[in-house]
Predict the structure of PRD domain-containing protein.
Amino acid sequence: MLYRIAKILNHNSFMGIQDENNQECLVMGKGVAFGKKVGQTVPVTAEAKVYSLKEMTERGDAKDILKSVSPLCLEFANEVLNQAEQEFGKVDRTILFTMADHLDFAIRRIQNGEQISNPLTDDIRVMFYKEYKVASCIQELLKEKMQIEIDEHEIGYIALHVHAAIVDENVSQAMEIARTVRECISLVEKETGNFVDVMSLGYNRLMNHVRYMVARAIHGEKLKMNLNEYMSVKFPEPFMSAERICRQMEKSLKLPIPDIEIGYLAMHLERMLDTDINE
């Protein structure tokens, strides 16, 4: 594929016009712009990554973001997406622009000595374990290229961008799911009187169930098998707790949670309580 160079960002990236359809693109790859000049038409190999500048993102127009972030942040975001591709296969690379924008702000915060805290970091690390692992590659990149230390809270936010690149959810939806899961776990602790350790198997099972329960509520999906009658007779206390939790979650999400979810949540509460009693 041939591209006419419109603007060189650095040795590894340029803005170009695709020869075939006159589309504006961001082209990224090792040394792709090295020794090149504006106006020159260059072939781009399959190893290079090409991003359309027609994209509209959560944070605005891709072309506007490109003007406001440093080329290095684009490179960092591109590398995170390369790592995500190795881990997950195909990823939505349009997330590059919002991720680069976030990284640009994060780097400025770190350079200004501003610390952010994210009360959901532990939940994100467990809920999106593989995404967090991929996002962690940013630590080494920032240390090597800019001598900057990035903390776990910032990595948690990058993990949400990675998650958005592999599923049909944007970053704010992923954050909402993490926040709602945390709220639900707090309600479970209140109902059962038991502290739920985020590193425990019980948390992992419960968290995964709640995560998909919230996603089903957001997307209007329903479970098929109804456990309510069985759970309400066999385990009435966990069932009543699950019912109260589901009603509270409806208020928080401002979305209906189908009654069929109660039995499944009750089953997880009973399993968790049974594990605690037997340990």
Observations:
- The radius of gyration is 23 Å.
- The chain has a mean pLDDT of 89.
